[in-house]
Write a structure and sequence with these properties.
With 404 residues, this protein is of the alpha/beta class. The protein has helices at 18-32, 50-58, 94-97, 115-126, 146-151, 207-211, 219-239, 254-263, 272-276, 282-287, 308-317, 355-360, 362-383; strands spanning 4-7, 37-40, 61-68, 74-81, 88-92, 131-135, 155-157, 176-178, 190-195, 268-271, 291-299, 323-330, 344-347. It has 13 helices and 13 strands.
Length: 404
């Protein structure tokens, strides 16, 4: 009998935060198992909610301020100071350069900027922090971190000695980088970048080609950005005497290439879950559960490449725990999640609806889908003589009251 549940979802972009997703799943669990012991473990992958989650987990707090947003306007944002004694700050790039901060009619990754990320790093240093963790994810930019370097004092100059405007497209005109004005405190600061190691800056799997269209780039803009970022890596390597591979090194494509820009300053690019999840005691909490429920906006061929459900399933399988994964949509290659430890998976959508309705009712749909899935599992348990049967793919049967 299932009584202990570990609920470990990520957020659903532009619909639900990880916390909201966890609470929606928990409501669905309680409809079926009112006496359930539910451990809510909203997970962050470096994107939206990272700073707050780590501040909460460590007993730290958020510092609120204004900085330059992705379209160049000043916006309200934040970074976190952790509750440890080591003076660690967390800069969540999505909080100042995320896709959700770019209005739909202004989504052009050729001109959006990470300038605000550099401003937040500088503000963190102003507090006395000498260790900065940068969370990458949910970005609305593709400037290779150029804006962040400019905010930290680097000058990006064209052949006539003029400063380049914001955005990745302009990098194709970069002639040299003047680092004489870089913030001197960077030399004594440990910068760790929590990123998806599968994301690289250049090549056929480079960040412009893989993620540019999601951020609003046309096919022509994608190729221009790809060329500009390759040129950016070339000049960065030359002018900052970088010895690591900025073109194809793991994590260099994180957040539109922010990983590469920060790596050129000496930052360490680390697998995001190795950096982030240790603060949450995830392994021990998964080990105590009878069933692990995870979720994200889409399950598809990219899920095994560093997404939250993949990491949750991998860790849960170390303890032999069954894993249920729910998603807003099931894309091409969704079945591949079975190979990474997901025992059952399904979409939360009860019927075709508009994108606006899907985003607005995400919590309701997730709760209903959780209830449907657990009732199916209960039937399987009874048919198998009381043993948990988590191998069947979750049904997408409509709950009568779900869609009006």
């Amino acid at each position: 009998m299932l009584t202990r549940f570990a609920v470990a979802p990520s957020g659903f972009k532009e619909s639900l935060s990880a916390q909201s997703a966890a609470e929606a799943i928990a409501e669905g669990v309680r409809r079926v198992v009112p006496e359930a012991e539910i451990d809510l473990i909203p997970l962050v992958d470096g994107g939206e909610g990272t700073a707050l989650a780590l501040a909460t987990a460590s007993g730290g707090h958020l510092k609120r301020l204004r900085a330059t947003g992705p379209t160049g306007e000043r916006i309200g944002t934040h970074f976190a100071l952790l509750g440890d004694t080591g003076g660690t700050a967390v800069v969540e790039m999505a909080a100042v350069a995320g896709l959700s901060l770019v209005p739909r009619d202004l989504r052009d990754p050729g001109v959006t900027t990470t300038y605000g990320v550099g401003e937040l790093i500088g503000a963190a240093l102003d507090t006395g922090a000498r260790r900065v963790l940068v969370g990458c994810g949910d970005s609305g930019t593709s400037d290779g971190g150029a804006g962040a370097l400019q905010a930290l004092g680097a000058r990006l100059l064209d052949a006539d000695g003029r400063e380049l405007p914001p955005g990745g497209t302009a990098l194709i005109r970069l002639a040299r980088i003047d680092t004489s004005g870089l913030d001197p405190r960077l030399a004594d600061t440990e910068i760790r970048v929590a990123c998806n190691p599968f994301n690289v800056l250049c090549g056929e799997r480079g960040v412009a080609r893989v993620f540019g269209p999601q951020k609003g780039a046309t096919p022509e803009q994608v190729e221009l950005l790809a060329a500009a970022l390759e040129h950016w890596a070339t000049v960065l390597t030359r002018d900052l005497a970088v010895t690591t591979d900025l073109f194809h090194g793991t994590g260099t494509g994180a957040s539109g290439g922010l990983g590469a820009g920060l790596a050129a300053l000496g930052a360490r690019l680390l697998p995001r879950f190795d950096v982030l999840l240790d603060h949450l005691g995830l392994d021990e909490r998964l080990a105590r559960a009878d069933l692990v429920v995870t979720a994200e906006g889409a399950l598809d061929h990219q899920t095994p490449r560093g997404k939250v459900p993949a990491e949750v399933a991998r860790r849960a399988k170390l303890y032999g725990r069954p894993v249920l994964a729910l998603a807003g949509t099931l894309g091409e290659g969704a079945h591949q999640v079975r190979a990474i430890g997901v025992d059952a998976y399904g979409s939360i959508m009860p019927a075709p609806v508009s994108l606006t309705e899907a985003l607005g009712r995400g919590g309701e749909f997730l709760t209903d889908a959780t209830e449907r899935a657990l009732r199916m599992i209960q039937i399987g348990t009874r048919l198998s003589g009381g043993r948990t049967h988590a191998d069947a793919v979750v049904s997408g049967t409509q709950r009568p009251s779900s869609v009006r």
